[in-house]
What we know:
27% of the residues lie in helices and 19% in strands. The protein is an alpha/beta fold. 49% of the residues are buried.
Amino acid sequence: MNNAHFLVPEVSLLRTTLLTGALAASLLAPTAAHAETGTTGGAGAGGIPALTDSRGRVLTLRGWNVEDKANRGDAALSAVTERHFRDMRAKGFNFARLLVFWDDLEPQPGRYSQAYLRKVERILDWAEKYDVKVLLDAHQDVFGPAFGHRGIPAWATRTDGLPFTPRPDDWFSEYFEPAVQRAFTHLYEDEDLRRAQARMWQVLAERFDDHPAVLGYDPINEPMGEIREGEDLPTAARRIEREQLTPMYDRIADAIRTADRDAWIFVEPTPIVGEGVPTGLGQIDDPKIVYAPHFYNTGMEAGADYDPAAGWIESYEQAITLYPKEHKVPVVVGEWGPLNNSLPNMNRFYRDAMASLGRYTSGWAGYVWCYGGGYCAVDSAGAFRTNKELTAEPYAEAVAGRVRTSAYEPASGVYRLEYEAAGRRGSRVTELALPPGDWKVAARGALVLRDKGRGERHGRTYERVRVLAAPDARVTVTVTRTGPATR
């Protein structure tokens, strides 16, 4: 959302330099996928399943949104460069939520831009080079170009002649303009627009289903809808989620599955969940669904400082975990992070937020990886902006086994991972991600391999850390900061 929300009323180490002989061969040999998800601490905790990869390993995603909202047509996506992925990975991040726009992909009905698809593919190739997993997000802001923004094409925008007044100083309030609300109703209800939206996703899935960087698809960013007379915003949001978004996600999932059977599909509720309102979404009829809410606070988006006593993070966490517990799906937060990171309580906010997200999600994408001010994660030189460095922690990006505990203590600079290694049919390799700085990695019950040279030879600037365990071993990994963190 990344702007004022709901301002309308209610509105080392066992360090092993070389692995030799039969031990290395057996540990590194490919094995069949066998999912053994976590039980406590982070993903897999409290009845919420963990996200897993094709080898059955428990995944943790930490990363950022990557976007180019300013350029379109021939210049579309020109602001996204290889540097984005190189720098993100160098700071320990493994995930990017890439914004793509339907209006660029299909500028005229049924005519899909091959040039745009090639640009998306080039970005995915950069992501693959740096081992960054990508979520393709069909982004919309205030529906699309018909209202001066990006997203659903103008040719797919129907307003029944209802009025629209631009509000450049409060763009999010434009969602409540009658024309915009009616456009959402038509998108959800008109059969030809339903087919067009599903076909757009089928085109994307057909093009990128075998690309190794693609983790999943996000059918629509921050979906909204039309408020009926007599409804308050929470009531309307739950109805829209139940009656319009749930069948929309079923339709789009069916379209994607004609081409891609393996990727995860990330479904978003309306943005009202940011205020601690449980979603009305129903069960999505697909086996690989991820619940992907956003994590914004109205007051902070409007410029206010974080108030720890207000209990917003606690109420958000309580509300947001109801759906994944009921429907047994993983959680990945698709956007989060305030505009002003330098206010007095923002250091506390980032620590509280990271702790909360670590309790119930399989990961998150902060908003946004760019080089400058505002929401940007880093400055023009690529250094973290104030307090953003708190998002860079050690974590286990893929665990080959059943996670028992996984937690980082910022004050001591210690990360601990305990897991029961997968059985004989499972993967042997657990992978760690480390942020910039000096770190000691030790493991009990497993071997640790730290490989810097390989990364350099492949043009990568990050260190690969792998933990290799025998089947069914009980493993404890400890990562300890031994020098000052770097920006």
